[in-house]
Every structure is written in structure tokens, then in C-alpha cells.
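name: query_chain
kind: protein
chains: 1
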Amino acid sequence: MMHSQFFKILFLNIAIFIVGSNNLLAQNTPVEICGYQHELEKIIQKQPNYLALQNEWYRRANEAYLETQSTKRKITADTLVYEIPVVFHVIYNTNSQNISDALILSQLNELNLDYRKLNPDTSRIRPVFKSLAADIKIRFILANKDPNGNPANGINRINSSRSTFATNIYGSYSEDMKSTSNGGQTAWNPSRYLNIWVCNMEYPSYIGITYGFATPPTGSPNWAQFQSSTKDSTDPKSGVVLHYKIVGKNNPLAPTNYKEANTATHEVGHYLGLRHIWGDAANPFTQGCNVDDGIFDTPNAKDKNYTCNANINSCPDAVDDKPDMTENYMDYALDGCAAMFTREQAFMMRYVLNNFRTGLPIRTIVYDTTTEYKETVVSIYPNPTKANDYLTVVVNSNNTLGSFSVTLFDNNGKEVLQKRIQANQKTEVFTASYSVGVYYLLVKDSNGNIIKKEKLILNL
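structure:
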């Protein structure tokens, strides 16, 4: 839910997921030792106007989301799937830290289930939130080439002299896992890969531990007025870090409440621009209900939740009041609770891929249904087509459908052409106004049914 005081205070969510000591957990008394201020200060040192950029980014994203809700649904909104190449850097000092390929693949599978709303955990979603649960239409694939173009399997193992990357018993940590010279692994090109570092985040006899953290989007090249001094494409620390014991479904080393592999889902959400659903107020007791996560369809919440208590309503609202959304992946009640992202959270993550992490995803248009007509033949030629040439489209039809629509999308899913054509007539499209690249062409009948889809290549 968007609240009137949202723009007064907006806080950066660096994805720190913390739990207390084993004894405290056993007593159901979670302790949080949050690296928020530490991470925020580091980013602001590089980019002093970062919070202003965050505020403006959320304002623009919210405006764009509202616009999509007030217009007729377009096929690009439903069918453009993003594939993100992932590399897991497994940094180990002991055999137990060198987790198996099976656990890595299990983690990747859980990410894909969660981000495509295919996880069986959706049965947990309460009726009040069922209609808000969204398919993000993001897939994660293991990188099949390294930055030099050599074959790879997306799992990069590094035997390190570092026994841990925690720096004290309270959960503090260094980011040395992201540096080859410091016992870790320097990121593969962060503009082309999602780097996930898997390493030991435990300190001996620890009281607190950081299970995962992520870098949020830190630069948008199309906002020149902010003069962003740090960009994701050059930031060697851009990515996600996970404690090795919580990677993969039913990891035998995982502590209670961290066996469903949801921490990675939570951290990738931060990497793709989401805040915690309670908004991260500096003082939740006095500010909690006045600070929002910037998402319209997540209810206002005062603070994080560690349990699945369905009766929690920490911020009663005068209008459209709903309980805390403990089943949201961006809360802290993960195992037994987490099962969904909302529709606007889905929009926000895709907004980030289109405006911040622009080189990261492979964009693939997938159509769920196509109507076949035995008496209708669509011809599109030549393909590939040269720039400053003509693309010809002909619909040969013996039925009575009459006219057809032809729509051309660029590789980002943006509609660049739409025109109506008549059956059994040749239609030519001059390509001079289009850039070289990959396009997708749809032909639909007068009832809106897709009868032809084709990938087009425009060459010099």
C-alpha cells in the first residue's frame, strides 16, 4: 500500500539477512545485527546523491506502474521473459564449504520456481493476498561461457586460504570474497552476469551471523541529471553473497527455518531493486508505520516479522486495511511463510532490468497461445532483412476474416510498428527507420488471436 508519508523517508535496503545465536534462536528470540548503515555509508561515499536517486527512481517506477494499470493490457507485458545468466563462485577453505553441484542446481531451481510463481508454497498464500501474487517472468540460467568466451558451467570453485569472511562474533563481515587478491573471486562482468558468491560467513563462537546480502542498483545511465558516479557495469562488488549453509533446498547443514532456500530469493529481490516490505525505518517503534517500501500492493508494516502469525496487523489503516504480508519473500519470515511477490514488486524488478541492469537479461518473447488456421498462410520475407530495404508480409486466407494486424516489437519488447493489412494483399514495410538488431513480428486476426509469430533479423 502506498502511504502519504512515503516520500518523506526512503531508506536503502542493502540485503542483510541476519539471525541470532543458536541459543537465541532456540528461544525464538531473533537478534538482528544489521549492516545497513555500514553499506549505505559506503555507497554514499561514492555517490553522495544516492538517496535522491532512489527516491526519484521509485517515483518514476510508481507512475509507470499506475499507467500500465489504467491502459488496456498489452501482449508485451505478459509475454516478455527475462533470462539472467548466473555464475556461482563457491569459495571454500574446507570440504564442507565446497558445497555440491546438486545443491547449487537445487538453489537455481528454487529461484526459478519462486520467480515464475511455480512453487508449491503458493498454497500458503491467504485468500486476501491470492490475487496479488505474481509471476515475475524472470528465469535464471547458469552461464555457459566465461567473460573470455570460454565454455563454462556457471559454477566457479575457488580454494581459498580464508576460513571465514566474517570479522567478529556479532555478524560483521568484509567483502573480500569479491576479490581474488583477498582470498575470494573477482566478479565476472557484472553487466552481463549475476554474480553469486557462496562462502563461509560464520565467526567462531558467533553471537550473530549474516546469512546473505546484496548490492542494490546503484546507477542509471539514462538519468544524466544525477551524475551517477557508480554504475553496475563497472562495480566489481555488484551481486549477491550467501552463506554456504543456506544454499539449496534442504541443505543438510542449514539451521532450522533456513532449509527452503528462500534466502537467495530474498537477496535477489534486493539485487533487483526491492526494499523490505516494512520500509526499514531507523526506529520502527516511533517511525515504523510512517515509512513505506514504496510498493502500492504490499500492506503497510511497522517492522520485520520472523513468524507466520496470520493475525499480525502492525499498521492498521483507515482505508483498505490488510494484515502484514508475512508470506512475502521480502519479509523475514521465510521458511513456512514465504510464498509470493506482488504484482507491483514484479513490475519494479522488471523496471530495474530495463533501466538499471540493462545489459544483464536476455529478453525472450514467449507466447502462451497461438490460434492456427489451416486455410491461412502468412509469408514474411526476406528474413534476415537488410536496413534500407523492404520487408514483405502477405496473409493468404480463404476464410472470411478479412483484415489482420501486424505488430513489430524490438528486442526490448517495445512496440515499434502496428498496421492493419488486408488478406491476400502484399504489404511492404520499409526498414530504414529501424536499428540493426533482433525484432519480433506478430500477426493477429480481427478477433485478436495470434496466427503468426516470427523472429526477424535486421542486418546492415
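note: Residues 162 and 289 are 42 Å apart (CA to CA).
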